[in-house]
Structures are given as C-alpha cells and as structure tokens.
Amino acid sequence: MKFDTIIIGGGLAGLTAGISLQQAGIHTAIISSGQNALHFFSGIFESSETCRERLIRLFSTAGIRVQDIPGYHLMPMGTFREAGLSLEDVASFPEKKIAERALIVNFMGFHDFFSSFLAEGLEKEGTACRIRFIRLPEMEHLRQSPSEMRSVNIARVLDECWEKAVADIRVLHKDEDLIILPQVFGLKDASVPEKIASALPAHVVFVGTMPPSVPGIRTQMKLKRRFEVLGGTFLMGDEVTSAALHEGVVSSVTTRNLDSVRLFADHFILASGGYFSKGLVATPNRIVEPLFGLDVFQASDRNQWYRTDFFQDQPYMDFGVRTDTSLHALKDGVPMKNLYAIGSVLGNTRKDDFGTAAGLAVSTAFAVADAIKESQKEQLP
Ligand SMILES: Cc1cc2nc3c(=O)[nH]c(=O)nc-3n(C[C@H](O)[C@H](O)[C@H](O)COP(=O)(O)OP(=O)(O)OC[C@H]3O[C@@H](n4cnc5c(N)ncnc54)[C@H](O)[C@@H]3O)c2cc1C
C-alpha cells in the first residue's frame, strides 16, 4: 500500500498535520494505536500564541469552536487560570467573582466532579454557592458500580436524555444568577450545551471533570472525521511495529494488524506522543524512542531526570527526540531525509521555536505539513 505521507500517532499533532496535508490533496494515512492526550484534555490550548489563527481556522473546518476571550478560566478544583485559547466549552470570566450566587449541580454518585472544591474556591472569591444533586433513572445502571459512573458513560446517557436533566435542574433552581454543571453534555452533538444554556433560567457554565474529558474526546472524534471526509485513511487501534530504513530514508512501515502488508510513503511523520503514549520510553538508564531508535536529548545521569520536589518543573519533561531546524528527526547525529518528528515526542527540546504542550503539537504539525507541501510542489513537473 502506498501513500504520500504516513503519520504515526493520531493525537492532536498527528490529526492537525493530517488535515493540513489532506486539505492540500496530499494522500495521507494516520496509524494510531490507542488513547491520546486529547482524551484527558482540559480544553485549554497552552502555549498556542504562534499558531492561534491557523488553529482556530483548521478547527472551525472540523466544526470545533475555539475561543480566545481575555479573563480567567474556572478550573475543576475551583481555582482560576488566566484565560487563553480554549474550546468553547471552557468558561472564561472577566473577574474571579463570577456571580452573586451560584447553583452547582452534580449527578448522584458521580465522584469525578468536585462540587465541594468548586464551591470552596468560588466562595473565597465572593460567590455564594449551593450544591445540589440530581438522580436520573436512566443512570441507575451506571450507579451500580463506581467504575461505571465515569464522565464519558454519563455523557452517553445524557446524549439521549439531557432534557430530563434540564427539567430537574429547573426545579432545583431558586434565585441564583449562575448554574454550574459538569462537562458531561454533548459528546455526540456539540450544540447540546448551548441548548441547555438557553433552556435554563440563569447563566450556565460547564466545568471540567476528572478524565476522561468529554470535550477532548469530542474534539478528537471531530478532527478524525474531518480528516476522513477530506479523504485521509485512519487506521484506528493499529500500531506501527517496525520500519525499513536505509541511508537516512524510511521506505516503509509495518503494523501489528497488517502484519504482512508494508505501508510505503514518500514522507513519514512521527507523532507518537511522550511517555504517556509510549512515544518515549524510560528504561532503567536511558530514555529511548522505541520505533526508529532516534536520538533523544536527555541527561545521562538518571539522578538528574527528576527533582524530588514533586511540584517543581521536572527535567524529564524537557527530554525528547532531537531534530534539525526543519524538524527532521536525528538518528546517530544525522537528520533523517524523510522522517519528521512533531508534538510531545519532542519533549521541550524545541520550546523556543514552537512552545510547549498543545501549542507545540499544533505549531510543529503545521510547520511539517508546510514543509511536505513545499517539497511536493518542487517535485511537480
Ligand atoms: C494526560 C495529559 C493531559 C494533557 N492536557 C493538556 C491540556 O489540557 N492542554 C495542553 O495544552 N496540553 C495538554 N497536554 C500536553 C499534550 O501532550 C498536548 O496537548 C498534545 O495533545 C499532545 O499531542 P500529541 O499528538 O503530540 O501526542 P498524543 O496525544 O500523546 O498522541 C500520540 C498518539 O500516538 C500513538 N502512538 C504511539 N506510538 C505509536 C505507534 N508505534 N504506532 C501507532 N500509534 C502510536 C499513541 O497511542 C497516541 O494515540 C496533556 C498531556 C497529557 C499527557
């Protein structure tokens, strides 16, 4: 099987690159083995200043609304963070006193939404809070086991019966000017939170829960759908297990599911994530990039990988695959000719040029997609 480009990893970086390439008519396959960081996404794109406009445009073509409203984001533990680029699900406020009185509503038995911490944090800033719980018969089967009472399962139930939740919340509401709900609405249909907001008698905000993140999963599903609508091939739940390399060129890869089939491409993009996604693996003495054996920037002494103060920045977060200025991955000190590395597999090695976190994922994806588009143009007769 032959593609113009093969991307290894279907998280934020891989999908952004894939959509950009498909938009330019470059036939691309994404192979992605499992969960990615979007499943845990807060909804806030950190460090995204350099790619802001392009990110908003690309996401809007996928039906995802991204906002940039100055002020403060309310976080799941009741603290505030200075606002930046975020999914529209994330509320932002001009000041930390967000209302006179707030009603915080949770679902009975759902422990991943911290209503008491939220109330404590808000009351500190001058918003009086009342916490109430609702219980829907449709959720009873989830309540049988605490491990089932998770945000995504609740969201699946609410996709079918959110109007019933709204009816119960209307009964609970007294004179509050704000109603706070967990982000468990609109997994399938992103317009549901807006519909809920207009059906309730006070301003409504949705606050993040513990992972998995419903807005993050919805974002991943929409980006994947957009990539496929553009003609891209997404091999979900498959894993690249080996690659054929010769003199700095990758010719093909093989995957676990397509064992005997080699997948060929002109360009390859490694978007396999950091430690969390096994794009980087820590062995007792070394941090390795397991697929191609690429050069990894790291401290040679293991004692320098981390600081004992848990709350300090940890050096191992800076470690990642080394690249040249145009993001070609380095192997034995030499840039691979057609293999690029993007996203969190880079650690913070390129933070001066591309930022960190989601900003790094998106801006490196755009940079590499542009480089590949440029090289395809040069090859045209
Ligand atoms: C838990 C968590 C929460 C985060 N939350 C935020 C946040 O709220 N805001 C923010 O700005 N940043 C956040 N980050 C930082 C995050 O790294 C980036 O935001 C970004 O989403 C990373 O995207 P990525 O595509 O580089 O990697 P990932 O999202 O990790 O995706 C890599 C994908 O590659 C797949 N893969 C790995 N190896 C192979 C292989 N051999 N074959 C096929 N597939 C493979 C993995 O299964 C995974 O699906 C978070 C990071 C983590 C770990």
Amino- and carboxy-terminal Cα gap: 24 Å
**What structural class results from the helix and strand content?**
alpha/beta
The description of the largest β-sheet is:
8 strands, mixed
In the CATH scheme, what's the topology name of the largest domain? Answer: FAD/NAD(P)-binding domain
| Averaged pLDDT | 95
State the fourth-level CATH superfamily of the largest domain.
FAD/NAD(P)-binding domain
Task: Calculate Rg over CA atoms.
Answer: 22 Å
Number of discrete helical segments: 9
Oligomeric description of these chains: single chain
What does this protein look like?
The chain has 381 residues and is an alpha/beta fold. It has 2 domains: 2-37 and 217-379, 3-Layer(bba) Sandwich (FAD/NAD(P)-binding domain); 91-207, 3-Layer(aba) Sandwich (Rossmann fold). Helices cover 29% and strands 25% of the residues. The protein contains 9 helices and 21 strands. It has helices spanning 12-23, 52-61, 115-124, 140-143, 151-172, 192-199, 214-229, 351-354, 357-379; strands at residues 2-8, 28-32, 66-68, 72-74, 80-82, 85-87, 92-93, 101-107, 128-134, 178-182, 203-207, 233-236, 240-246, 249-255, 263-270, 281-282, 287-288, 296-297, 320-321, 328-331, 334-341. Strands 1, 2, 12, 13, 14, 15, 20 and 21 form an 8-stranded mixed sheet that branches. Strands 9-8-10-11 form a 4-stranded parallel sheet, with helices on both faces. Strand 1 (2-8), helix 1 and strand 2 form a beta-alpha-beta unit. Helix 1 (12-23) runs parallel beside helix 7 (214-229) and helix 1 packs parallel to helix 9. The longest helix has 23 residues, at 357-379. It is elongated and about 70 Å long. Bound molecules: flavin-adenine dinucleotide. Residues 8-14, 31-34, 36-38, 40-42, 44-46, 239-240, 271-274, 276-279, 291, 343-344, 357-358, 361 line the site of flavin-adenine dinucleotide.
